[in-house]
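User: Okay, second chain of the day. Same drill as before: sequence in, structure tokens out.
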Amino acid sequence: MSPEYVIPYVKAHKNDERDAEAIAEAASRPTMRFVPVKTQGQSDLQSLHRARERLVGDRTALINHLRALMLERGTTAAKGRARLWREVRGLLAEPPVEFSRRISLLVEDLAADWARLDARIKAFDKEIAEIARSDAAMRRLSTVPGIGPINATALVAAIGDARAFSRGRDLSAWLGLVPRQATTGGKPRLLGISKRGNRCLRKTWSMVHGRSCHDLPRRIHISVAGFATS
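Assistant: Same drill. Structure tokens below.
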């Protein structure tokens, strides 16, 4: 069960005994929703994604550091990793007068770290692409517009058996792609889209940015559950 569904049943002065009592009470509720246990394969795939995500974060921090270092010495690079990389290579080939020998060596060291991170991220991407090609549900997901190997593997690893959701709308709610609701006095009020879903999926999923088809949750539900696509 999700911990947030157990909290209302915890009495004052929290301790282990009252936690166990609250869990037993929550589990006995007829409308309680339960979280399916992930398989070993799902857990391994999510660990792979987390490792890749950490490397991407390290690369972003390194790029920001490199930009700030260059900006302090009067060199401004255009937006984008490719443009910054070309600028760095130009600086290393012909260092400007504002760059001392120490700073040039530092930029060279940061550029080498950047290249190593790129190589490790590409290795993860290659492994994820191979996994996506070897799984039937992931192959079906890859046919949906806006979903590639990273999104397909992340969705299958997080969702598992999509038959836990009766329809695509329930999957949308689980992902956090439905409006928040504030209803009082019988007057419903729909607010903006909530952010309660899986953060990693929301970060990589193109529908969050409005670039995919409107029925994407339904198509994902069909693909992951293994139903016939038509």
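The CA atoms of residues 175 and 198 lie 6 Å apart.

User: Thanks, on to the next one.
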